[in-house]
């Protein structure tokens, strides 16, 4: 339901009850260290909270580790094993994946926990919905697959493999080299950033719009129009479940593509 339709459904005297989401949601005012490089706003606070939760959960899991794991330890191990086996080893290979398992696991868990804040009451916005955090993860991934290529092939060998595929006739080098350079060395981190950012921003707008419409229809609408609030409330529940799925899916895709890029840097032809 669009903001226009919902607003028009409200009584003229109560239209102020509908507050649609806006771009200002992603740029809250600072509340600490304002005017310094360490300025703290709501988004930064959420990032710190979710990072602290991630570290705390796995610290507790590690401190209580047993030969026969309990449910909590089993859940922690399941997440780690998923990143190790189903992402790193599946894509790169068991033997070659070992040095890169820690970074791939960190990316997977980091993106997952920062994404999931978008559906946590009181936080209500993904910590990755502002471009700074997706860029950080993309830069880490870029460093990882660049390091993998240089480690295995040397600087010049890696660069040549990225800009000049094997078997290309010399007559086409002037055409292929700029395309491959732009595709492999420039666009990879850019697409990683935009994909994650766009999904988290759109998810926030969908959820916030449903919440705002539900509040406006239940509280400020008149007569039978209040019944529409049940529809928007149902949509809110559905979108919460969908956003949980998207949060996990985007974490998986980000880590998976990082593993794919590492593999392509190692196994050049």
TrEMBL record:
Membrane topology: Multi-pass membrane protein
Keywords for the protein's UniProt record, in alphabetical order: ATP synthesis, Cell membrane, CF(0), Hydrogen ion transport, Ion transport, Membrane, Transmembrane, Transmembrane helix, Transport
Entry coiled-coil feature ranges: none
Keyword Mitochondrion belongs to the record: no
Gene Ontology molecular function, alphabetical: proton-transporting ATP synthase activity, rotational mechanism
SUPFAM superfamilies: F1F0 ATP synthase subunit A
Gene3D superfamilies: ATP synthase, F0 complex, subunit A
InterPro entries: ATP_synth_F0_asu, ATP_synth_F0_asu_bact/mt, F0_ATP_A_sf
Any one cellular-component term (Gene Ontology): proton-transporting ATP synthase complex
Transmembrane segments: 43-62, 100-120, 126-150, 171-190, 196-218, 230-262
Pfam family, one: ATP-synt_A
CDD domains: ATP-synt_Fo_a_6 (cd00310)
Keyword Cytoplasm attached: no
Record localization: Cell membrane; Membrane
Function: Key component of the proton channel; it plays a direct role in the translocation of protons across the membrane.
Family (UniProt): Belongs to the ATPase A chain family.
Name of protein: ATP synthase subunit a
Gene behind this protein: atpB
